[in-house]
Amino acid sequence: MLHIEKPDPLKPLKYSLNKGDAPHRKLRNAKVFHNMGFGKGALSYEEALLLYTLVIISKPKLILETGSETGASTMHLAMGLAHNGFGELIVLECDPKSVKLTVDNLTKNNLNHLVTVKQENSLKYLAKTEETYDFAFLDTLIGIRMKEYDLVKPRMKPGSLVAIHDTLPTHPKGNMKIDQHIQEPMIHMESPRRISVVMV
Ligand SMILES: C[S@@+](CC[C@H](N)C(=O)[O-])C[C@H]1O[C@@H](n2cnc3c(N)ncnc32)[C@H](O)[C@@H]1O
């Protein structure tokens, strides 16, 4: 097994910011969640720790992430892999500036060797790939999130987990109607924008 020093998810990461701050500070229970200040769409610190924990519990060999922005979620998924001592992460991010920020932030935190950041449109990539994943985190645009789920579902190994961000029905950017769309068992974690974890 590859020896990698275990990262401490409670230690502050080094990072560069995208312009703009995380929105939605007026959402229910936003005040008791911590905004890491990574970027406009970045998850909260508590949601990032949830991703880290899901990775160290489920021990995936291959993770898929869609939408990295500045890499807040990416770094926490990668920290989980570093803790496990095996596994890799493929990230699909369509914006070249976000690809660069994500790679730079991974590099600053010595996590870049665990991650391949691809400048790709998630829907196009998932329609043609033959990869199979043990864990997925979906976080692009709310309007395409359920299409991403439909494309990724056949690529997931049985019993694996798909975490989906922004599932709150009253989310200011729209309602992806996850309960009407997804038949598999899932749990909704009640963070400000909500993160749902589906077992495929
Ligand atoms: C909400 S942000 C991601 C935040 C990030 N997961 C985090 O928590 O730090 C959404 C990102 O998805 C990217 N994106 C939007 N549509 C996409 C698509 N179809 N394929 C890949 N990336 C996409 C955007 O460029 C943006 O960087």
Question: What's the gist of this structure?
Answer:
The protein has helices spanning 45-58, 72-84, 96-108, 122-128, 145-152, 178-181, and strands spanning 62-66, 88-93, 115-119, 133-138, 156-165, 186-189, 195-199. With 200 residues, it is α/β, with parallel strands linked by helices.
N- and C-termini, Cα separation: 28 Å
Q: Shape from CA axes? A: globular
Beta fraction: 15-25%
What strand line-up does the widest sheet have?
3-2-1-4-5-7-6
Question: What do these coordinates show?
Answer:
This protein has 200 residues and is of the alpha/beta class. The protein has one domain (34-199): Vaccinia Virus protein VP39 (Rossmann fold, 3-Layer(aba) Sandwich), CATH 3.40.50. It is built from six helices and seven strands, in the order αβαβαβαβαβαββ. It has helices at 45-58, 72-84, 96-108, 122-128, 145-152, 178-181, and strands at 62-66, 88-93, 115-119, 133-138, 156-165, 186-189, 195-199. The longest helix is centred in the first third of the chain and has 14 residues, at 45-58.
Please name the defining characteristics of this protein:
200 residues; binds S-adenosylmethionine; Rossmann fold; 30% helix; 7 strands; alpha/beta; 6 helices
Task: Please render the helix and strand layout as text.
Layout: H1 45-58, E1 62-66, H2 72-84, E2 88-93, H3 96-108, E3 115-119, H4 122-128, E4 133-138, H5 145-152, E5 156-165, H6 178-181, E6 186-189, E7 195-199
Parallel strand pairs: 1-2, 1-4, 2-3, 4-5
Antiparallel strand pairs: 5-7, 6-7
Helix pairs in contact: 1-2, 4-5
This protein binds S-adenosylmethionine (SAM).
S-adenosylmethionine (SAM) is lined by residues 38-39, 41-43, 66-70, 72-73, 92-95, 98, 121-123, 139-141, 144.
